[in-house]
Here is the input.
Amino acid sequence: MQNGLRMLKKTSIWLVLIFFLLWALTLLNPFCQLQASERSFGVGSQKRALVKGIRYWSNSAYTRIVIDIEREVTYKDHLLRKDVKLKKPPRLYIDIKTAKLSPHLKQPIPIGDGLLKRARAGQYNPTTVRVVLDLESVIDYKTFLLTDPFRIVIDVLGRPTRVKKKKATKPPSPQRSSSFKVVIDPGHGGEDPGAIGPKGLREKDVVLKIAQILGDKIKKELGWEVILTREDDRFIPLEERTAIANTKGGDLFLSVHANASKNMRVHGIETYFLNFTTDKDALRLAARENGVSPERISDLQLILYDLMLNAKVNESCHLAECVQRSLVGRLKRRYARVKDLGVKQGPFVVLFGAKMPSILIEVSFISNPMEERRLKDERYLNEIATAILNGLKRYARDTKMVRGQPSWSISTALSSS
Ligand SMILES: [Zn+2]
Here is the structure.
């Protein structure tokens, strides 16, 4: 009996030892550890999206930061005011949920433009990437999401401050320039051909030609400074085009496009400015020009609620009217069957956050055989450019827009519309 009890005791000790050994092995197993830690942060089977890149465009009063992310995520932004006690500058940070930081973003990105000191990103916790912008001064900021591909756009507005840099590396200060500045944006480019006509004419080629002709005319006749968002056949994301206009201190922004419709008989000219719309055709067009599916367009209209406060709606509407009237008037005098589709409004991403009066011009329908034929003809493009130029002159005359000491004389420059 005693022997039996001893045996039972021995077996129990062994069992307990084996149990502890197995438990210890479980702890050492890295696979089990990973599972345990992920569970503890509530990720479960959710895969983290890669935060792939940070791009920026800036001057001393405006900076646009774009965070490129592998796929759709949620985020939260926070502004921390200057902390005098802790000697910390104001900071704006964005927490991106269920995300993983790409290893090449671990180094801070120095900006030093007088508005932002730097941008930096870190893996705040296993599931959150935090992007921090160290600010010198800030008045306001806006963030919004764009899709296809997914990115978060942050616009920071500040008070211009002096840049503490050596003279040689000091960036140009567009705000102090005395010359009036027009930013012309030829739509699409590179891998994005835009709309394609029945005979194969590509929107990206036509609008580049118009932008170049128009730019030359503006420089020659008005003496204004002209900036093209692209001078050749290259792809530029929509948010970069607006960023160029803002950071270069543009006074007007014109995005030039050619229209398209499934119905090849549809033709005509229309000019848009940024605003909400319920017009189905305008929404369909905005989806195409934004490179998103029509279902996504309601998201963009929601973003607009935040952005419209700073948008120059009245000025943009007036600019659109001047350009549209001039285009239709001039082309009607020289061509048959020119159709006025009017001034319209829509949620065009390329106009999101533009700080100056800005419009999107659909010069003709490339999908219509007659208008495609015309768009192939240099004379027609020349007429379009002249008409837009005259529209700008009209706008300048109406608004008496003067920037510093313009290098053109109102009486001579505005007499030829
Ligand atoms: Zn287009």
